[in-house]
Structure formats: structure tokens, C-alpha cells
Amino acid sequence: MATTTAARATVPKRMVLVALCFLATTLCYIDRVNISVAIIPMAAEQGWSATTKGLVLSSFFIGYMLAMAPGGWAANRFGGKVVLGWALLLWSLFTVLTPTAAASSFGVLIACRILMGAGEAVNFPAIVALFGKWLPVAERSRAQSLNFAGIPAGTVLGFAVSGLLVERWGWQASFHVFGAIGLAYALLWFRLVHESPARHPGTGAEERALLAPLQRDAGTPPPVPWRALLLNRPAMALIVNHFATTWTLYLVLTWLPSYFKDVQKLEIANAGLFSALPWAAAFVAGPIAGWIADRLVAGGMTVTHVRKIMQVTAMLGSAAGFLLATQVGDAGTALLVLCGTMALHACFGSGVGSNHLDIAPRHAAALYGVSNTVATIPGVVGVAVTGWLVDTTGSYATAFAVAAGVNIAGALVWLAWAKGEPVVD
Length: 425
Fold this sequence. Notes:
By secondary structure, this protein is mostly helical. It has a single domain (11-198, 226-417), classed as Growth Hormone, Chain: A, CATH 1.20.1250.20. It has helices at 2-9, 13-46, 50-78, 80-104, 106-120, 123-134, 140-148, 150-169, 172-192, 205-211, 226-230, 233-262, 268-298, 303-325, 331-345, 352-359, 364-375, 377-393, 397-417. It is globular and about 55 Å long.
């Protein structure tokens, strides 16, 4: 018994935290993407056009964008644990209420999705705030890559399981089931997560010593120096690339099931499954990229060079994949191309995804709130514009070409201005 207890005591608590954050991100994306499958029968039931579908899908991002900067400030000020815990409760509640809202009126449905988006806005800034107190520099690429692996993990589960739930019990079931799981996890989050190593009674002496340099801001953080934080080229490169990264993310997240159904002529369940597989590729590739990035840093390569390699790989790889996807003619080939696209895109977790803690370690949550506010514009505009382009052109080729252009522009800005060292104290 004593040996078992000692063995358990040696498990790094920061790794437990990373796993819990991964689960929160996974739930965040399950609740975000289930409507991408459910909206197919919803639209048929209501007689919605692709443009109206785009408005419903994009409404989530209105709340997400408006709440992002306040959420980042709150996580920076009050800590990631409590802010994310309450956010989990909020977005899970509005997930459960989505079918009720849809039965009420179109306006109530839009309002419900906006409020759900406001809850999910807090997830990443709160996790960044926790990582700033729990993770040394040499472990951040792996931790962020694993956390971002929750995006494909949640998307895979959301797409695959939602398709089955919709076919067996109707589109309402996907919201009820996943929302209830989120409410239960919120209660576990409050019980299991600790704001800093100093507040975790199980943190060992060796781990406390390793993380001691990170605890200088464990108390009330200093005011955010907004001008110095935002008005520099590395921050601008980060914001531009966060925008470019999420253009791809939200396009694939919201429109892939419709693409496989409308263009490749798959049934709903198969469209959900095919939409999930590119995210499975990203789930595998992201943590591998994070491990490689941390190994390169440990081997002496500068953080700046590592961040540039990883982000440019994500941007140019995504651009090439989208351009190639416009040329394919069958579902199997399209699936292979999109799997490769999302595997390369997953390198962003070791690029822009880890860069907030690099350039502003004491204000990373606040910076993430601002950059992700800008990065939510593709969710509001890009998702709706995609619906308009599909209606106007009758295909997805133009939408994919626009996404490729956005990624290429992001890569050029990143090469010119990105930096991997602190620019703000």
C-alpha cells in the first residue's frame, strides 16, 4: 500500500491538469459541432436555404466573439479554474435548451446559440491562464498541442455520435445528451482543478520547486498594459495568424457534413463519419507536432524558429489541401485530401497556439481574449459567406479557394513578424 501511495504521489499534477483541460476542450467542441450534423434535418424540417443555415451556424460565433475579450480579462484577473467552471455550466445549459429554443421561434434559437457561444468563449483563455501557472516553457508545446487535440477529439465524437443520435432518436437527442454530459463534467471540474501548484495539496516538493518561477503572478496580477501588449509586430502576427488558422477551422467544422452530403452524395450518418475522419487525423498529428516542437527547443533551436516552422507548415499545408480538394471528384479521394489537410493544420498548436505564453507570459489570457476575438470573425463572417458562396456558385470550390488564400497570407505575415520570446513583461 505504501509503495502504491508513493507511486501515485510522483504523478506530475501539471499533467493531470493538462488532461482535464483536454477533456474540457473536447466537450467544448462536441457541443459546438453537433449542430453541424443536426442542422441537416432541422433545415429540411423548417425549409431553410443554405444561407439561412449559415445564419444559424454563425450565430454561435456572435456570442463567442463578443465574450472573448471580457472572458480573457476575467481569466487573467480571477483565475482559469473558476471562470472556466462557470462557463462549462453556461454553455452546457444552453446546449440542452437548443431544441426548446428551436421549437419556440427562429429568434429564440439565434439568441440561445449566441448565449452558448458566450459560454464557450472562455475555454481557451482560461486554460492559457492555468498553463501559465502550471507549465514551464519546455513543456508548453506538448501541453497546448494536447489541449488543442481536444478540438479534433470533440469534433470526431460530435460528428460521429451526433449522426447516430439523429438517425435513431431525432436531432433533438444530440443536444440533450451532450449538454447533460457537460453539466456533469462542470461539477467534476470544480472538484478536481486547482488554480496553481501552491493551492494543490498533492503537489510534490520537486514539482513545486520546478514551478516556483511561474508563481510570481499567483496573486492578483498587475494591470494589463494594453498598448504595449497589442501594438507590436509579434502580437500583430499572432492576431493575423489566429484569424487565418480559425478560417480553416470553422470552415471545416461547420460545412464539412453538408459538403459530403451535397457534393459527395452521402447519407447523414456517413456524412457525419466522413466529416469526423479528418479531425481524427488532426488528433493524431497535433500532439506529435507538439512533441517535435519541444524536442527542437530542448535541442537548442530558438523558440522563434520552432514557432515559425510549425505555423508555416500549418498554413501552407492547409492552403495546398484546399486547392487540391477543388479538383477531386469522389468521396474517397476527398476524404484522403481533407485528412492530410487537417493533419498539417494541427501543427498550429505548436505555432500560434503556443505563442501567447511566449510573448506575454503574464498577460497571455488577456492577449488570447483579444486575438481570439479577431479569430472569431471567420466564424461569424466566413461561415455565413460560405453559405452565400455555395448558393451563388453552386459548389464549394470558391469557398475552398478563398480559405487557401487566407492561409497563404497568414504564412507570409508569420514569417515576417513572429517572435518566440517575451515582448511584454
